[in-house]
Amino acid sequence: MTELRHLLLRRHRRSLVSACATIAVALAFAAVPAAAATAHQVASISQVVPASGGPVILHRVGVVNLETLASADARRAGTAFPAAAGHRQVAPLGMPPVARAARPSATAPATAGLTGFAPGNVAGERGFDGITAAIDSGANPAAGGISPPDQGLAVGPSPAGTVIEEFVNNTLNIYSPSGETLLGAIPSDQVFLLPTRYFPTDPRAYWDPQTGHWFLTQFTFGVVTSGKPTSQADQYIAVSQTASPFSNYTVFSFSTADRSTPGCPCFGDFDQVGADNSGFFIATNEFSQFSQTQQDFNGSIVYAVSKSGLIAAAQFTRPVPVIQRYRVPSDPFGAYHLSPSTVTQGSRAPDTEYFVESNAFALTGSDLRVYALLHTDSLNTGGRPPLVVTTTGTEQYSFPPDVFQKSGPFPYGQSLGQTGVGQLQTDTDAVQGVTDASGRLYAELSTGFDFGTGQNAGIGWFVLHPVTGSDSVSASLVSQGYVQTKQDLLYPVIGVNADGHGYLNFAVSAASRYPSTGYIVFNGANGPTGNIYISGHGTNALDDFDCYPPFSNGYCRYGDYSMAQDYNGKIYMASEYMAPQPRAVPVNWGTRIWYAPVP
């Protein structure tokens, strides 16, 4: 495990830069404009993407029953287990080169138009604590401690009524809206029928409004044999055989090692899922597994499969469907994070899947690229939909800084001889999630902005209107803007209904605040309105092993994304925060799940 630990460490360790490079970074952090710009910009000419690839072999792994797994072992009761130092696991995160540069403090004047904080919460808001580090360690005792708790969330109907499926690194649970546990914590290696030597990460959960079925995904980063990682790398998909989230799921897998590409075997990092009327999609960032440097990014890979074909194969009524693979090795933005869209409940689902990409390979950006897979109904007959792309101008955004958290007890850090708590990593200004609501795309990203004493982390949001032809796509910018406060906002996501109304949710932290969760009303094309509500007040500082050497130098990994979903008139949201719950020995993170009526 030592070799694996050091390999994972290389995925997120910062490198030093020269003084000249530092000056260049400082100049790039010009103040983001304060006012939210609204425009109707016509995109550039559509281009066909010459994406290489072809069919990928999909395998049935087997069938699991979640109720059976949940009752099989009493150890998943949430008890914290002591962890051996060599067994701690950091989820890999491949970052663009700019993320590894030192980030300076800015000296520009404070940005105007800061958002305030509201007392109380939206009428009807309810929430509860979800999976915590102690529960996760109890479910995965061999791992000892896993960080960060990348957030998966799906909400839909069941024989027990509305249920909330939460899936983090590396545990699954199902709750009622009141917070009652309906399933019990299940380790993800059991969900996907994995040997314990596999390293699963980046879980996703999705309930499909069109078919009523449940989808779970996670990728594996290598296999440990005799203490060393091998070149194995796979993507796993579990599909419910019925509309019940509790019973049988058929597990599928396919290789992401991409052995024919120079620099590989590789793995498909940050696997995001999307769906339209006909297809189910997974977009990944491809990184070499064993490079000794971090200059090992090979572009994005998109996998497309027939949704009905996948469900029929899960029910064993049809053979496994063809998966089409699209390799995008480069584009003007670096081909990093082609974030797929999901169609919100009640919206018309097109036979087009959209992806939105920001310029995360640069220190600043002022454009978005919109990719579209056209005629995805052809997936139902083994066809290969064409991939097209266009670009539209936007407001400026920039790489977000790491952010402070309130100082508090840090017993694990003190046991290592540390003298204080670390800052929280904000990752990148890549688009994290895209919602398709009645033909408009709602996207968001983290951005830096200048605030008096230095850089703060805020949010940029965008509403786009894509239009497709038989072999083309264009996109106009409907509206855009920022949410920025005197405190720092991390990992935003927009959850809206078919009319574009809902909430923008995120994590909140500051030198005066423990890591917490917050949200703001999102009013269609008008965007965020009013003040920020705090849904979960953090009660301690993050004190995970990955805040300290040898895993980092004072920068804590944080849940790499948040989640939000519209279901039956409510927006359900989830994010990492510091819950008032027992800790495990080397980790003390928590998660918060909450929901509120659509405003």
Structure, explained:
The protein is mostly beta strands and 599 residues long. It has one domain (2-597). Helices cover 8% and strands 42% of the residues. The chain contains 7 helices and 36 strands. A 9-stranded mixed β-sheet has the order 1-23-22-21-20-25-26-27-28, with no helix packed on it. Strands 3, 11, 12, 13, 14 and 15 form a 6-stranded antiparallel β-sheet that branches. Strands 2-19-18-17-16 form a 5-stranded antiparallel β-sheet. A hairpin with a 2-residue loop joins strand 8 (163-168) and strand 9 (171-175). Residues 1-40, 74-86 and 104-110 have low confidence and may be disordered.
Q: Termini separation (Å)?
A: 49 Å
| Poorly predicted runs of 5 or more residues | 1-40, 74-86, 104-110
Shape: globular
Mean pLDDT: 87
Which bin fits the share of residues in helices?
A: under 10%
In spatial order, strands of the major sheet run 1-23-22-21-20-25-26-27-28
Main sheet properties:
9 strands, mixed
What is the overall number of helices?
7
Strand content: 35-45%
Radius of gyration based on Cα positions: 22 Å
**Count of extended strands:** 36
Structural class: mainly beta
Q: What is the quaternary state of this protein? A: single chain
